[in-house]
Amino acid sequence: MRIVFATDLSDANKAAMESRTCLECLDNIGVTEVHLITVVPDNVSSGLPGMDVATDAHKALGAQREVFEEAGFDVETHVARGTPHRRINGLAERVHADMIVVGSRGESPLRNRLIGGTVRNVARTAVKPLLVERIEKTEEGHAVKKEHLFQDALYATDFSENADRAFDFFPELTGATERAYLLHVRGREQQRGDLTEEEARDRLEAMATELRDRMGIDVETNVRTGGVLDEILAEERRVGATTTLVGARGTSRLRRLLLGDTAESVVAQGNNNVLLVPPGSATPR
């Protein structure tokens, strides 16, 4: 498996890379090749004395490259100039990446510097699964908020085609996921009218049986009632999930991807790592 790891060369991103348990999780799902990318904005001049940002970025990437190489991954580094989400997604498509990984500082990645708007824009335009890895500030600096990235996975579904596509990605986490929690929320945001609570529980249990058979893991199911986002976040806390798996809804080819309100809110307001599977994502090799 091949991933693109986007970094702004900050201490926060360095903390995400140096987490041994996170590196082990990537290894456990079969990641062998890492493409490290950082993007230099167009409005930063490289012609002024002391402002050779591309050279400085290459040097900084070299140190981060060593972290992955020491963990046994094959690594290539890329310094691009331009709009971050376009360069990140462009690289992911060019190298046929199976996943994009970005680090997010704080509870709202929509508010921080590089990874803020970039996360939303990558998600809205990506055809590759996107892993948002939460990073928090500590007394010593920064650390990942939830280690063991895929160990306890919460999957939220409205039984739509987009949610089904995210469910189909589950087997790619074999080797790293030990427990899965399947959740359906019956609330104002999802007035489908064609599923009773009992029918929803039956569908979740059928999916749980499939995961148990295919992955050999423990699986629990739950149906909650209330506001969709609130109930997803409450379930994250209840089960102690390390990553929340959700699907995003697509629109036209011209727009490529428009995040659904729920998916975007989980990324923006949640405290968990988020694995977002877009409509255009291909099955990893």
Describe the structure.
The protein has a single domain, classed as Rossmann fold (3-Layer(aba) Sandwich). Helices cover 37% and strands 25% of the residues. It has nine helices and eleven strands. The chain has helices at 11-18, 20-28, 53-70, 84-94, 115-125, 161-168, 197-215, 228-239, 261-269; strands spanning 2-6, 33-40, 74-81, 99-105, 130-138, 141-144, 152-156, 179-186, 218-225, 243-247, 273-277. The longest helix has 19 residues, at 197-215. The protein is globular and about 60 Å long. Residues 106-115 and 251-259 have low confidence and may be disordered. It comes from Halogeometricum rufum.
Could you give a short description of this structure?
This protein has 285 residues and is α/β, with parallel strands linked by helices.
Low-confidence stretches: 106-115, 251-259
How many structurally independent domains?
A: 1
**CATH fold-level assignment:** Rossmann fold
Total strand count, please?
11
SSE pattern, N- to C-terminal: EHHEHEHEHEEEHEHEHEHE
Radius of gyration equals 19 Å
Largest sheet: 11 strands, mixed
- Termini separation (Å)? 6 Å
The helix fraction, in percent, is 25-40%
**Mean residue pLDDT:** 80
In terms of structural class, how would the helical and strand content be classed? alpha/beta
Query: What characteristic shape results from the CA principal axes?
Result: globular
**Binned strand content:** 25-35%
Assigned CATH architecture? 3-Layer(aba) Sandwich
Question: Helical element count?
Answer: 9
CATH class: Alpha Beta
